[in-house]
Amino acid sequence: MDALTRPFDPARPAHGPLVPFPLRVLVPFAAIGLAGMVAGYRGWTWLERILGVVGFHGGLLAASLAAAWEARRGWGPSAALMMLALLIAAAACTLSPWGCLAYLLPPAALALLVYRRPELQRMGFAPGADWRTVALGGAVGCFLGIHLLLSASRTLGYPVRLSPPAPYLTGLAYDVGANVLSAEAFFRGTLFNRWQRRWGFWTGALAATGLSVVRYLADPALPRTVEVVLGAVFYLALLSLSGCGLLWYCGSLGPALAASVVFFSAYRMLQVR
């Protein structure tokens, strides 16, 4: 049954190709990312950051929207709105640390689309989320975040600080508006959504989790010490599997988004060297 006629259904059969969006959707975003690398090579780091955000996170969101529309026409304007919000946010963040608060624009744009475009229900975005399940997701993220802080501070000696507040808030705003948003939409709402209906929960969850962890490990901002890399694999794998379980359980990405936001709000407190 078409997801437009009822809420997210994890048992709905998966038809069509393994990847639920045309790969050509990613071509322009790969070109933007490549242009960002060239800009970094030329020393234009501000432009590199802007193009990197739009190329990478924009590509994941555009692919997710194309999958939600099942590759039919109509997803383009929604993708353009999300790209514009990311572009404004990334540009504002290069001007001032407090300009990173503009990363609240992409979630606001997505919320508008959720209320106006029923196609987004296909990946678990629906208006009127059950706040009890969202609270459950927040509790999962809180548990993993507290465990991370205790392990990193007591075992590895990393300090936990919130002062000065600007770096913490700017990092968290980036997580909320780009990092978490694109990861949940793509790896859980799009890939896991398709694969768990094709192969079953565990195979789909492990496949989506593996790609999600690789995505974070490829981030050049992640410190390359052994303990940080191993910790990232451990906690991000648990976070991803939890997000898959929450989506499968309640049919909404809201709890998984809450879990990730709470977890990264704890991670940003660590002064990782």
How would you summarize the topology of this molecule?
Layout (H helix, E strand, L loop, with lengths): L26 H15 L3 H24 L7 H20 L9 H12 L14 H25 L9 H35 L1 H17 L8 H25 L3 H14 L6
Please provide the count of β strands. Answer: 0
Distance between the termini: 50 Å
Uncertain residue segments: 1-7
| SSE-based structural type | mainly alpha
Portion of residues in helices?
Answer: 55-70%
H/E series, N to C? HHHHHHHHH
The fraction of residues in strands falls at under 5%
Largest sheet: none
Over all CA atoms, what is the radius of gyration?
18 Å
Global outline: globular
The average pLDDT value, as a whole number, equals 88
| Helical run tally | 9
Oligomer: single chain
